[in-house]
Every structure is written in structure tokens, then in C-alpha cells.
Amino acid sequence: MTSSSLPIVLYAVPFLAALLVAVVGWYVRGSARVIAVSAMAMTATLAAAVLARVMTEGTLYTPLGGWPPPLGIALVVDRLGALMVVLVSGVASLTVTGSLRHVSQELPGRETPYYSCVLLVTAGLIGIAVTGDLFNLFVHLEVASLAAYALVAAGGRGAPRAAMAYLIIGSAGASLYLLGVGFLYAATGTLNMADEARLVATADPRLVMVGTLLIVAGLGVKMALFPLHAWMPAAYQLAPAAAASFMAPLVTKVSAYALIRVLFWVHGEALLRTGGALEILAWAGAAAIVAGGALALVEADLRRMLAYSSIGQVGVVMLGVGLANTAGMTGAVLHIASDALVKGVLFLAAGIALLRFGVSRVDDLNRLRGRAPWTGAAITVAGLSLVGVPPLAGFFGKWYVLSGALQEGRWMFVAALVLGGLASIGYVFRILERLYFAPAPEHSPPGEGSWLAVGACLVLAAGIVLLGVANESVVSTLVLPALPEVGP
Fold first, then answer.
1. Would you tell me the crossing angle of helices 411-436 and 277-298 to the nearest 10 degrees?
2. What is the SS3 assignment for 325?
């Protein structure tokens, strides 16, 4: 390991910027957005520097306050953590910058608390990615969650009720996670992930099994893993469009990363297979693929449809994790990245459709026909990636998970992936049919939405194409070296 202060600086920038926004934003008009965008850009730059350094020097390590673990808390950034901070900071920077006009339209006079909460969510998600301590992970999970509840509550009619449901269910998930950590602490006497990985094999297996299942359930709630998904559709439908475009690509994906981190870096594949946690995850993932796809297929509201789609895509990730072979894990990591980019495009575009054209339902997307060609192009790229059309990024994540299921001879999981793929074809082509083939009404306003929003959509869409075209290089240089030791 290489000692470095970069991980703490990476976390400190958005966290301190959130405090700065909360103070300065009340006194200097317009400063909140300037501070937020600047902090996001700085965080993304630091994340790229962290990834570059990890690839050349190995894992970065920072004991907080100079106290070495297990007494102190350590920040640890390996290749997988570095990939996640690049993903979080990059997508967050683009979605926040792209939705500047949306915030002005939806939340006039409330920009300061909005940007402060956005920065707190970003800091919390980065903290989850870089921490080496199970309790510290819980702290960052709650920092991100509490700010996310506030972002949802800032929406219009019905949003406070959706935020309250999100808070209650999310708090239950956090409690389950914390209870699971308590069981693991009782079994091993430590909260440091590296120490726990060393001690867990000789600990009381009953305590370890109960703790593991509680952690799986708690993080399953946070990532909206079926059937623990009840909070998500209303939250993403009723939140402000700017908040939804920021949260939807990242919150559930980082929770999935946290589960991968705890299961494979603390417990290890061999211990997990004997406890049954991986089998539970695989079946829950398969059920999520089918249920999420089916619910999205029959949904009329655009953002609610995208939320159900996210449930299905989280299922793909968890199926790959549950298979616990190299192909499945590669697919899981790739799909976290690709779906973050896809949902960034689609939720930003949904914000453009709502705030520029007054469109919230799929059937009304024909109002964009011929009037928003660049937005439509970005939606098309993201939608085809969601279906799994090569060479876009979404194809490769699903292909690797499918390969992992075929390697194991798990035909029910193969069938779930096929059914989920057919459902995604159905709901994506519902969108494309309205965009390109339904007649446009004459009274629809001409012109694209905010150029920042459209530009962010196009950059994210370019990322989808680039991640797909460069897939072989990304897998060989970034993903495979970052994976835990699993079966072939």
C-alpha cells in the first residue's frame, strides 16, 4: 500500500463545499451554483488523479488522525474503489452542471439548500467508495441518504409523502445494515475490513451468517433490490427533475458497490458459498430482472418507467455478483458503470421533456419529435444501450453476466436475462416510437431545452459509446485487475 492524503482530500472537497454553500449561499446570490459546479469539477479531477496513481503505485492508504487500525479508521482506495470515485464524481459533475437551468425553474429561492444537499450526497457516496471500515461505511451511507431524502422532499405535490416513505424504508435498511455490522463485530472484535477479512474465517459461523444476511438485506433496501424496491418509483417520479437526474444514476449503484466490497473483501467467496448469501442474491437478481422489466413495460409515466428499469438493471448486477465467477463479476462491474451513464442521460432527458415541453408521460413524447433532435439522439443511444445493442456499453455488462450463467449451467438465470431483455426492448421502443414515428402536435414549442442539459446528455451518451467500443481495453486494464478472487 502507498500512503497518500489524496483519499481524504477527495472526500473533503464536496463535504466542505456543502458547508460553504450553506453559509455563503444565503448571502451572495448565485454563489451556490458556482461553488457547487466548481467543487464537482475539482472532485472529478481529483478522482482521475486518484485512479492514475492507483494504477501506477497500487492501493492508496490513509489512517485518519494518524491512528492506525483497528483502533483508527482508514481510507483505502484500490482499483475498484478508484473506478467508483471516477464514476461518481464524473456523472455527478455532468448531471449537476446539466441541470442548472432545471434547478432555477423548479426550485426558485431554494438553490442554496439544494446544492448543499447535492454536495453532501456526493461526499457520502465517495466516502462509501473509499472507506476501509464497516461502521464508517454506515456513517457515509447515512450522510448520503439523509441528504437524498431532502432532495426528494423538495419536489411538488406528493413528493413529501414519497420522501417520508423513502426515509422510513431507507432507515429500516440502514438499521438492518448496522445490526449486521454489530453481529460481525461480536464475532471478530473489529470493524476494520482488512482485519475482519483476516479473522472472519475462524469466528463463530452463526454470528457471521446472521450478520451477513442482515447486511445483504440492509444494502438490498438501499439499492432497491426486488422485492425491497417500494421506495424508488415514487421517489424518482416525484422528486425535482434535477434531483432525480443526479440521484438515479448513482445512489443505487454505489449501494451495489458497497455490497460487493463487504461480501468479497471481508467475507470471501468460499465463506459466502457455504452461507447461502450468494444464492439468495442470484435469485433476487433474477427476480428483479423480470419484475423490473415487466413493471416498466406497462408503466405510463416516463420517470416511473425509468425507475422500474433501474430495478431491473440492479437485478443484472446482483445476478452477476451472485454467480461469483469472473464473467459474472466482470459483468456486474461493467453494468454498474454503463447503467449509471444510461440513467444519467435518460433522467436528464426526462427533465428536458418535462420542463421544456410539459411531457411527463411516455405517450406524450411525440411533442419532442422534430423539435429536440439532439435530445432525441441521446435518448436513442441510451435506450439502445439499455436494450443491449452492441457495441454500446449496456451490451457488454449483460453479455458477461449471461456468459457467467451459461458457465454455471444456470438456465433459469439465462431465461431471466432473456425475459428482461425482451421487456427492455418493449419499453425502449415505446419511447422511440413516440419520439420518431408518432405525429407531433402543432402547438408544441420549438427548440431544444437548456444547452447545458442537452450538452450533458450528449457527453454521457458519448461515454456510453466509448465504454462499449473500448470495452476490451477497459476490461483488461481496469476491471479484471480490480476484481476480488473468485471462481473462473
1. 30
2. strand
Tens-digit pLDDT profile for residues 296-337: 999 999 999 999 999 999 999 999 998 888 899 999 999 999
- Which alpha helices (H) appear in 277-410, and where do they start and end? 277-298, 302-323, 326-357, 373-387, 393-408
Query: Residue 322's domain spans which residues?
Result: 2-482
Angle at 376 between CA 375 and CA 380, to 5 degrees: 120
What's the CA gap between 327 and 60, in Å, rounded? 27
Task: Confirm whether 487 is domain-assigned.
Answer: no
Q: Is the pTM of this model over 0.90?
A: yes
Minimal CA–CA distance to 252: which of 215, 210, 223, 232? Answer: 223
Q: What cell does 423 get? A: 421487456
Distance, in Å, from the CA atom of 109 to the CA atom of 414, rounded to the nearest integer, reads: 50
In a domain, 81, yes or no: yes
Determine the Cα–Cα distance for residues 21 and 183; give it in Å rounded to an integer: 39
Question: How many domains, in total, are found in the chain?
Answer: 1
Strand partners, 77: 60
List, in sequence order, every beta strand (DSSP E) within 48-140: 60-63, 74-77
Is residue 301 included in any domain, yes or no? yes
